[in-house]
Design a protein that fits this description.
This protein has five helices and five strands; from the N terminus they run αααβαββββα. A five-stranded mixed beta sheet has the order 1-5-4-3-2.
Amino acid sequence: MSRIVLSALCVLSLQGCDLFQTREPQAPTQSGSARTPPDTPEIVLDNLRSSVQQHSTDNYMRCFVDTTVSGAPPFTFSASGDFQGIFRNWTLEDERRYFLNLGAPVNGSPLLTFLNQQQLNQGASATEYTMDYILFYPHSQPALPKEFRGYMHLFMQTDGQHGWSITRWEDTRTVTDSTWSYLKAHF
């Protein structure tokens, strides 16, 4: 009998707490991510663009091959002009460090534009893209330019788990010395 009374008292005390009432959801503490699962090579390019424009290090790094996956190729970056020596042994960790050192945009929004985009050697699990790019990044270094231009050749593969990713990036100077390699070398 005492169990029934105790149970009844518990039920009555819970009714006053609104324990079973629905409440308004709280707003998220961080803005949403513009990253889309890389089911196609084109999505990798979109993710690269949006990760730079949002300065999202995690999303930026997810555009590149996951070298922890068994059988994945190593990531390679081939730099433009005078910077080839700096990037000879460039790794994904170096890529992450550069992007973190670049810092959040100051006094403006980054913009990455791809021009004259062409897909080459398209296969079921590998492809290449070539394109001109214009990168505007309002970083905090007053002595460095904010706009970078060049020609990029991206090699992409699927890994069977995470979709498409960039395995090799070749950066070439076009009309100016201020390429993406130049930006990386200074950060």
